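thread: overnight batch results

M.L. [08:02]
morning all. the overnight job finished for the chain we discussed friday. pasting input first so we're all looking at the same thing
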Amino acid sequence: MPQVVDFDDADLEAVQETVSERLWGLTEMVPDGAYTAVNASYAGGKALFCFVKSSIWIVSTSLVVLALPVALEAERANMEITREQEQRQALFGAPQPMS
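M.L. [08:03]
and the structure it wrote out:
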């Protein structure tokens, strides 16, 4: 049967480790291969995030600069055609079918 160890407050006061010392001690438990894999995946994720962020910026600014003026001009032209049709209808009555 395993022996049960009772830790009391006196044993805990004898240990004078800081949090940073405890964390440093935990790094010794992790194998170097795992540390390298985590570090490489973090660097890859960071590079991917930077690439996606830059791509989104380039696409969105290009869309605003190139496509938005075209869309606004098309809308303006449609409004002009609608205004002319309404004016024609007000002056001449019902629209005549075009042949």
